[in-house]
Design goal:
The chain has 494 residues and is an alpha/beta fold. The chain has a domain of 340 residues: Alpha-Beta Barrel (TIM Barrel). It is built from 18 helices and 10 strands. Strands 2-3-4-5-6-7-8-9 form an 8-stranded parallel sheet. A two-stranded antiparallel ribbon has the order 1-10. Helix 7 packs parallel to helix 8. It is globular, with a radius of gyration of 22 Å. The termini are far apart.
Length: 494
């Protein structure tokens, strides 16, 4: 077996599909199940044997398409052994050793358009750091925080490891993402890990790389917070935001709001007045028990019916990690995705109307349990509509989104579940809608025009050269344990 020349993980200890406990920082990490641990063990065993068969190093095998295919096949075996057969990664066993089959299953095509509507970035020099207690080192436990830049002067120099260059590498070099929307975390204006100014600076970095059309911006608005409604004018006029991002569970004194409340209606009306009629709402993945009801989706159907000209993008789709995903029957569950579905039904909001389900963190978490993923995706496609499910990854918290992309390219709902619950088959056409065509319509973007630019801009040229000798790190940034989670600023607080 030939040794790897890779400088990153030369022994090939990291799997290309990251099945771990990482959280996006908005929910406490959840331990892996026995089936998940078995899946990782089988994947490592398969990597060793398959690399030997191909006479390559483990690292070289794992960064190949065969490495990703081999990992997903191992996950299938572990899930089947655990009796989880409702969803699976649909690829031939031979893909673990045959590059052309692996590429066909998880590689995507030249015309594929991937538009990630939920990306994040942390400003390593932001004013938010000044609000932290002396000695506080946020995000220092993240694996990527140990890069060479961490050795430079300054107690928080490690944050530069999470800076714009790493963001561009993770998203546009190590993944097949064409476009991304840079979003925001819940915060007060003086404590934002990413300010609109920094977000715009990142956009301009991408623009200087001739990456026009690659990065859009959200404007963070919590209307129950003093000054946010007034700030919407500047966000639109000066910063050119493409949509608004709000957290209904967040607010002064830990008190959230409903979009159907007076303050929520004022927010929607102002968005309409400014002509930016795309509102992205964090629902599900609750921050804690306080104001919990505002993390649920009962208000969505109400405002969607009242404002049919506004697009309401439900970030995380109302998903809650502690709520088992099952078929929607009767009134459904009292929490999680079912609260979104029930709100749509009760208010007469038909599928493919103006409510969109976004998959950031939701798909990544459900990769652990393809049967639960089959129910979640099946319900969203059935009740929100096949034109209204949007691709989002919540990266960079989970490192490069490439593994989420590869897993989704191969994912399928079983024929039995499709027949029993009237879920759709995930065809290439439906997959293309979810990956980007649906979001392109929401943001009034021409995928064809974007692809014309992204196939020949500087980022594309750099990626072409980079892929001759790729160095993906297969690491994540988010907290993996309760201790790491609680060390984050404001963890568990709405």
């Amino acid at each position: 077996m030939n040794p790897s020349s890779s400088r990153i993980d030369p022994d090939g200890t990291r799997l290309p599909i990251k099945l771990d406990t990482t959280s996006n920082g908005e929910f406490e990490p959840v331990p892996l199940s026995p089936a998940n641990n078995a899946a990782n063990r089988l994947a490592h065993e398969a990597a060793t044997s398959n690399a030997k068969c191909l006479a390559v190093s483990r690292r070289d095998f794992l960064i190949s398409a065969c490495g990703a295919a081999s990992t997903l096949l191992a996950f299938n075996a572990a899930n089947a052994a655990a009796g989880k057969l409702g969803g699976f990664f649909d690829l031939p066993a031979e893909a673990a050793l045959e590059p052309s089959l692996a590429q066909a299953a998880i590689g995507g095509g030249k015309e594929e358009f991937i538009f990630d509507v939920q990306g994040h970035f942390v400003d390593p020099n932001g004013a938010w750091l000044g609000k932290l207690p002396a000695g506080n080192t946020p995000l220092s436990q993240m694996p990527k925080a140990g890069c060479a830049l961490a050795a430079e002067p300054g107690s928080r120099s490690y944050l530069r490891c999470l800076g714009p260059e790493e963001f561009i590498k993770d998203v546009f070099l190590d993944s097949d993402t064409d476009m991304m929307v840079l979003s925001f975390v819940p915060s007060t204006p003086d404590a934002e890990p990413l300010t609109i100014q920094t977000a715009d600076a990142i956009r301009r970095i991408v623009d200087r790389m001739e990456g026009m059309h690659r990065l859009l911006l959200h404007g963070r608005v919590n209307p129950n917070q003093t000054g946010d409604l007034d700030a919407m004018d500047e966000l639109k006029e000066r910063w050119g935001v493409s949509a608004w991002k709000t957290y209904t569970q967040f607010g002064p004194g830990g008190k959230g709001y409903f979009l159907s409340d007076d303050i929520g209606i004022q927010f929607i009306e102002k968005a309409r007045k400014l002509g930016v009629k795309v509102i992205c709402i964090h629902k599900g993945l609750p921050f804690g028990k306080q104001s919990y009801e505002h993390s649920q989706c009962s208000d969505i159907g109400v405002v969607a019916k009242r404002f049919p000209d506004v697009a309401f993008l439900i970030y995380h789709s109302g998903f809650v990690t502690s709520v088992p995903e099952r078929a929607f029957e009767g009134r459904g569950a009292d929490d999680g995705i079912d609260t979104l579905i029930r709100s749509l039904i009760e208010n007469g909001v038909a599928p493919n109307s103006n409510v969109y389900a976004e998959l950031g963190s939701t798909w990544r978490y459900l990769m652990r349990d393809p049967e639960a993923a089959a129910h979640a995706l099946g319900k969203l496609l059935k009740y929100c509509g096949e034109n209204n499910v949007l691709w989002g990854t919540d990266s960079i918290w989970y490192g490069s989104p490439q593994d989420q992309i590869q897993a989704f390219r191969a994912f399928q709902i079983s024929a039995e579940m499709r027949a029993k619950y009237n879920y759709p088959e995930i065809t290439p056409q439906l997959r293309a809608k979810i990956f980007g065509l649906n979001a392109a319509r929401v943001y009034s973007i021409s995928p064809e025009e974007v692809k014309r630019y992204t196939q020949r801009d500087r980022i594309a040229r750099e990626r072409f050269a980079y892929l001759e000798h790729p160095e993906p790190h297969f690491l994540t940034y988010g907290p993996k344990t309760r201790r790491e989670f609680l060390r984050l600023p404001g963890a568990g607080q709405p």
